[in-house]
Structures are given as C-alpha cells and as structure tokens.
Amino acid sequence: MAQRPRGTVVSRANKVVDRTRARLARGLKTILVIAALATAGGCGGHPKNVLIPVADSAPKSTKIDMLVTTTRSRSTIRGEMFTGERALAPAFADITVSIPPASVRKVGEVAWPKRLPSNPATDFATLKAEEITRDDAKKWLSASVRKSRDGSVLVFIHGFNNRFEDSVYRFAQIVQDSGVHSAPVLVTWPSRGSLLAYGYDRESTNYTRNALETLFQYLAKDPEVKEVSILAHSMGNWLALESLRQMAIRNGRLPAKFENVMLASPDVDVDVFRQQIADMGKQHPKFTLFVSRDDRALAVSRRVWGDVARLGAIDPEQSPFKKELADSQITVIDLTKVKAGDRLNHGKFAESPEVVQLIGARISDGQTLTDSKVGLGDKILAATTSTAAAAGSAAGLILAAPVAVVDADTRDNYASQVSGLTGPTGTKRKPAACTVGLRSQEACAR
Q1: What is the pTM (predicted TM-score) of this model?
Q2: How does DSSP classify residue 38?
C-alpha cells in the first residue's frame, strides 16, 4: 500500500485539532452564556442544610406534610438529611414545611431563608424532618389518604440537578399553590446538584426505576388509595415513564386508578417516548404534556443526545407529532408564550400562578386541561450544556470552570468532581463502595 505524503497526514491532523478547538470554544461559549444568565437573574444561592427543624412561631403560616421516599444515601450532616449519592435500599422520611402567608410571598415562589434559622413568618421553614421506617411510611400514607377528600395521592418526581432540600421545598410550594388535597408523596432520586453531573444524574434515574415501580405497585394494591396522579419535571419524566412502562409490562396493564400523568418539560427522546407509550398498552393514564419551544435547556440537551428532538420542546402542531399525540389521546399545553420561570424557559409550571392552580384543579376536581396556551414548568436549578456528555471528563471540568466562578452550587461540587476524576493528591482514590449505600463519610475515610 502506498504511503500518504507526511504533509498530507499532518494537514489532516491539524484540521482535526482545529475542529476540536472549535467545538470546545462553542461549548465554552454556551457555558458562559448560561453563567451570564444566572448572574443576571441575581442567583445568589440560599443557605444549605435548611432541614433543621425550627419552632412553629407563625400561626398564620400553612403547614404542608409530605411523605418522602428516596434512593439517596443518608447524610452525616444534620440539616442535609440525604446526599446526592446512591443508597443500596430506599429510605423514607416524614417532613413538614411551613409556608408563610401570601402577603409576604408571591404565588409560585419558594421563599428561601436568607439566613438560618428560618423565620416561619417570612420564609419556608422546616418544622419536622424525621426519617421513618417502611412500616411507618405505610401508616403515614394510610392516615393521609383517609384525610383526603377522594382518597387520592399526588406523586411528584423532580428533575435534573436537584439537591434533597430543593426537591422538598419545591414540592411544598406546588402543593400549597395548586390547592391540591391529595396525599403528597415526594420521590427524590440521587442527583448531585451540579452542572457537571448530567451523566450521573441520568444514570441515577435508571438506578431508581425499580424503587419507583415498587411504590406504584403498592399504591395500585392499596384499597384505601382510590386515585393516583403523577407530576414529573425534566429528567424526572424519564424515571416516571420507565417505571410505568415496567409496571405495565409486568402486570399486563396499568391500573385504572392511575388517572393523570403530567409531563412537565420532559427531557425525553421523542422516539423513545413513542415506544414507551406503546409498551403501556391501550389502557394508560390521561397524559398531559407541557411543552415550550423556547426551552433553551432542552435545546442544548438535544445536541447532547444526537440531535433527536426532546419531548418537552416539540411543536405539537407539526407533523408527525400532532397526529401521534391525538392518536394516543395526549393533551398538550403549549407554554411557549408564557413569560414565567427561569431565563432558560425550562421552569414555567411551578412559577406560573394560573397553571399551578390549574394543576390542582386537574388533580382534585377531575377537570380536563385544555390547550389554552398557558405554561407549566419547574424552576430549573441548572442547565444541561453542550459539554454535559463530557461531564466527569477532563474536558467537561475545564469547560465548566467559568460557571464555578459565578454559580455557588457548581463551585461546591467542582472540587469533588476533580477528586473523582484524578483522586485526591497524595492519596489513593476511594473505592466505589464508599460513595454508595449507607456508610458514613467518616467510615469511608477510615
């Protein structure tokens, strides 16, 4: 075989290097834009470890009691409760959040405390945060369902980049502002709460599928539970859909009591969603899909996943989506024109007063949502970027460095990501078992 001239090989190599540099530059530009948006939005962060209970000193505040089930590992930090790492078995918690009166808080807003301890008169405050056993969780659910008007349960599954306290306070806000009377159950999966951890978060949803299906199976068999509604956001939609799909395949069908499934800004491949719906069979819940064509986070996620449309950013009036959605009897709410939520347009439902109240009507009163051009979404706490696929690699860390300067959550996680990639200087890298399961940080260190 004739050898190519050395100059030709070098020239091609140079072109590859140039293309790589161009891709890195585009990724860096994307991150800088997101960082600028975060800064412009005044994202100064909020105190961590807010789950230390305080006295109920504001009689006019509303109390939201919720059952929490999680596949996160326990934290050794008292006010954190659970970390972003994966546990070997699900855990449960009984949490009560105090929400200040409407006179000091906008509907759709989580009033994070500016300092600790929280003041129930002006802030969201934790009144109770206790880990409980599985049997106690069953007793909590039974008592809460009996208190509801119609024996209904609302299951909320959060999205990408949520710390444990983020999911707790956001769900409390949704329950309060929607006016829902169902027994509230929060499903929180292991998310590291970092821009760099997109890949880890995604795999954590897969890790949690069996646990969520187990919950669904329990609700299906509990005779006291008459109706189940599911609300999922962003990456949490993948977890919800996969668990429902597993349940349908295992049982041959989904139970009729699973009435409503609300998919908010789903970060799900449209082709995969098509197959998931087919696998659930003809008897599936009433799906309500909330889309926004200006969702910038999903636009970037589309680039990460091979330029396949993400379900939450489709144009429902275009072919083939319009016919397919109609054939599957999926109601679509187009959020594109709604001006609410974060600057990435990925978080409209919890912060739009009209829509969050409409959700409550849908759940509690059985009303049907119409395509009224109103919005649904949750305040995304960080965005996927064009470098999300490289998270955990040297390239991902280098390109995410500018965000660490302006984003407190990224800054907190940056050192641990570097450590996870290279190992702490002068020490052996800890085995994977130390970051999984129920071992304490001190035990792992030993």
Answers
A1: 0.71
A2: H
